[in-house]
Amino acid sequence: MSAQRTSHAAVAVAAGTAAVVFAVLVAVPSAAIEIRHSSGAHYTTDLTRAYEQCVSPNDTSSDGIAACSPPVTSACDYSRGDVELERLKNEPKINVKLKLSSVSGPGNCTTGPYSALFTVRVTADDPSCTGGQCTWIEGAQIGISLSHHSINNWELDDVVLEDALLTTYGVTAGHVANYEILGVTVFGPDSRPIAAAGVGDHSANRFRSDVTVRYTPCLAPDTPNTGGVPACSTPTWGATCDFTSGEIEVNDHSSSFTPSLPTVLGRFHDLVGASPSCADGLYQIATLVRATGDVCSG
Fold it and tell me: What is the mean pLDDT of residues 281-287?
């Protein structure tokens, strides 16, 4: 697999009464953890309130955007949460930590169960794939049950992502793998989303991820991997520029006294490429947003 790397980070954001979910990218879309490098292998974010996706709009926002009303979320609540993914020190695997604190609410809210769903795009060396490399079919989802750690606190503590992949798909991603984090969502005992990676309410004010190669999504599989999962051969990385390391950071500086929009920061080092514009040209950070707020007629 190529050692070239670029960008992306999946985020859920809430500002004041609005909860927003968005992804940040540079040059081409999507964020990842690349387990072959110490850089590009750290993803850490707070957890904000999560809402179900708006699939069948029945309302319109004040800006004329199609929307769903009322917003759907878990009946359970929590005080704060966070999630962290990083490479293990002595082997090419990803360690996962997640915590949801002071959970409360009706019914089974305090007794659970709770689960975390990691949506990832996996690209890996795999001898069973045509050409020995492939990107798994788009939207691989890894569900992991949280443990009841202490009174009203739930968490994942030092879970290995590859172990969860083996349980879910019957195969790990191999020793050379690239994980693009497309989403992290926690579901409550009512099977509805309660928290997601991002900034905003529930004391969530910072999202940060190292960035690495963004491969083209696998939408038309042409090869199976070792575990029989549909995949696309010849992984494609479309960027013409490269860099040695980079990160995306989103911060929410608002308070009850001074509401503000989140700020987005990108840092990329040693930009190179065949074109001179790779080193000093214009790069764009774009966002894909899921917003929930008091902005609809309902």
Answer: 78
Q: Retrieve residue 293's tokens.
A: 């707020």
Q: How much is the pLDDT for 185? A: 94
| Pairing state between β 230-233 and 223-224 | antiparallel
The closest of 182, 196, 267 to 10, measured between CA atoms, is: 182
Q: Is the dihedral of CA 182, 32, 123, 83 positive or negative?
A: negative
196-215 pLDDT, tens per residue? 998 888 888 898 888 877 88
Angle ∠(7,266,246) on CA atoms, nearest 5: 50
Total-model pTM = 0.83
The DSSP 8-state label assigned to residue 198 in this structure reads: E
CA nearest neighbour of 103 among 67, 124, 74: 74
Task: Please tell me the distance from the alpha carbon of residue 279 to that of residue 269, in angstroms, as a whole number.
Answer: 10
Question: Is 13:19 a contact under the CB 8 Å cutoff?
Answer: yes
Per-residue pLDDT at 107: 94
- The pLDDT assigned to 5 comes to 28
The tokens for 25 are 């990218």
Cα within 13 Å of Cα(65), Cβ side: 12
In whole angstroms, give the CA distance from residue 154 to residue 111: 10
Write down the pLDDT at residue 162. Answer: 86
Alpha-carbon distance of 209 to 268, in angstroms, equals 12
